[in-house]
């Protein structure tokens, strides 16, 4: 009988230990999950809903470097190169016909160009449609050009509009966000970058910065 | 007799051990850590949810509803955007995949305006949406790589048009 009591005691003890271990383990995991959720919430606060989930919208590996040279056709077919604007402050504005925010900022660009023209400033509006057209797809390219021309006319883009920006997208960091603008000083150096739409005042401040360099 | 009793207790103890570890596994499966949101691949703002596998009567058009989700904070154009310059969302099944897309019916977009242009209404999808398709399968097992083409934006940035894979295992009986 004594032995039975001992065995029963040990069994009950074991049972108690298991129950406690299970409970402790569950509590621990619950706490860890709460901690993780809190951390995720803190992180979420840093990136407001609706903004691009990664990176700052003002950064680019090109910042502080020479703007990559390009030579692209304008709507009349004439080649326009960046180097021909050396000595001027240039805003390179990448846009696409399917991009709503690009449409919103275009009137600001037209106004800014007029306001800063006397200070040696120019805007180059480069369409990058990302439609994966082959270089020999003449019909596709003609259709793209017509769409760009119609958009440029409708939105009164009074500055040089260049096409096939996709051919220089790698040099300009992939152009994964539209609009993307590079503010280039007189020496050809990128002094400010803007991904996405902000405001006319913000753009003016970046142009001022490029002019001051 | 005593020995027998001791053995019974040992068996009970073993049972408890097995039960406890089983319980532990069950708890682990239900752990709040286990169902944290699956991270979305960089650049993919739309995710195909389900079905992964369907069984259809071969040669007969069958209704299949496909479920998608747009990541939070983003919107994509509906199948019928209000402006012709916007790229519509569209679903496609490749030729000679053993399955033919007879028709696809898309939900109406919801009205949405960018904060900087509240007067212009866009027709978009956000959150979860479905595409109602009618598929005709040939007899056999087909691993179909269908696709969804869309163009996404958030409130200040637009992203280049993208095509995601919609893999469906279609069994035609």
What does this structure look like?
The complex is a heterodimer of chains A (213) and B (173). With 213 residues, chain A is of the alpha/beta class. In chain A, 43% of the residues lie in helices and 15% in strands. In chain A, the strands form two sheets. In chain A, strands 5-4-3-6-7 form a five-stranded mixed sheet. The N and C termini of chain A lie far apart (97 Å). The longest helix of chain B is centred in the N-terminal third of the chain and has 29 residues, at 2-30. Chain B has one helix at residues 2-30; strands at 46-50, 53-56, 62-70, 75-77, 90-92, 99-105, 110-112, 122-125, 128-137, 140-150, 152-153, 162-172. The chains are: A alpha/beta (213), B alpha+beta (173). The A-B interface holds A 3-4, 7-8, 10-11, 14-15, 18-19, 21-22, 25-26, 29-30, 32-33, 36-37, 49-54, 57, 96-102, 104, 130-131, 147, 151, 175-178, 195-198 and B 2, 5-6, 9-10, 12-13, 16-17, 20, 23-24, 27-28, 31-33, 36, 42-43, 72-73, 85-87, 114, 116-117, 120, 122, 151, 153-161.
């Amino acid at each position: 009988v004594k032995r039975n009591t001992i065995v029963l005691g040990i069994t009950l003890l074991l049972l108690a230990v298991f129950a406690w271990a299970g409970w402790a383990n569950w509590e621990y995991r619950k706490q860890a999950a709460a901690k993780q959720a809190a951390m995720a919430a803190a992180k979420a606060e840093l990136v407001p809903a609706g903004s691009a989930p990664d990176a700052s919208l003002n950064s680019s590996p090109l910042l502080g470097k020479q703007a990559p040279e390009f030579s692209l056709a304008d709507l009349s077919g004439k080649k326009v190169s960046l180097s021909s604007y050396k000595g001027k402050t240039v805003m390179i504005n990448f846009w696409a016909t399917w991009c709503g925010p690009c449409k919103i900022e275009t009137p600001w660009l037209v106004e800014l160009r007029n306001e800063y023209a006397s200070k040696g400033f120019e805007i180059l509006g480069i369409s990058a449609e990302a439609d994966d057209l082959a270089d020999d797809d003449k019909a596709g390219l003609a259709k793209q050009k017509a769409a760009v021309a119609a958009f440029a006319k409708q939105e009164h883009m009074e500055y040089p509009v260049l096409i096939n920006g996709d051919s220089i997208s790698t040099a300009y960091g992939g152009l994964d966000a539209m609009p993307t603008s590079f503010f280039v000083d007189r020496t050809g150096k990128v002094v400010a970058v803007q991904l996405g739409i902000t405001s006319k005042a913000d753009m003016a401040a970046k142009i001022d910065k490029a002019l001051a360099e | 007799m005593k020995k027998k009793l001791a053995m019974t207790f040992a068996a009970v103890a073993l049972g408890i051990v097995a039960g406890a570890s089983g319980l532990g596994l069950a708890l682990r499966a239900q752990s709040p850590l286990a169902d944290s949101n699956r991270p979305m691949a960089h650049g993919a703002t739309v995710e195909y949810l389900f079905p992964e596998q369907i069984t259809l009567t071969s040669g007969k058009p069958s209704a299949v509803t496909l479920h998608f989700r747009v990541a939070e904070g983003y919107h994509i154009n509906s199948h019928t955007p209000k402006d012709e310059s916007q790229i519509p969302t569209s679903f496609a099944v490749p030729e000679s995949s053993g399955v033919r897309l007879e028709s696809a019916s898309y939900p109406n977009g919801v009205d949405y305006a960018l904060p900087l242009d509240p007067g212009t209404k866009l027709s978009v999808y956000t959150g979860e949406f479905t595409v109602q398709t009618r598929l005709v399968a040939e007899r056999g097992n087909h691993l179909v790589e269908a696709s969804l083409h869309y163009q996404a934006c958030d409130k200040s940035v637009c992203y280049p048009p993208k095509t995601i894979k919609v893999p469906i295992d279609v069994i035609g009986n």
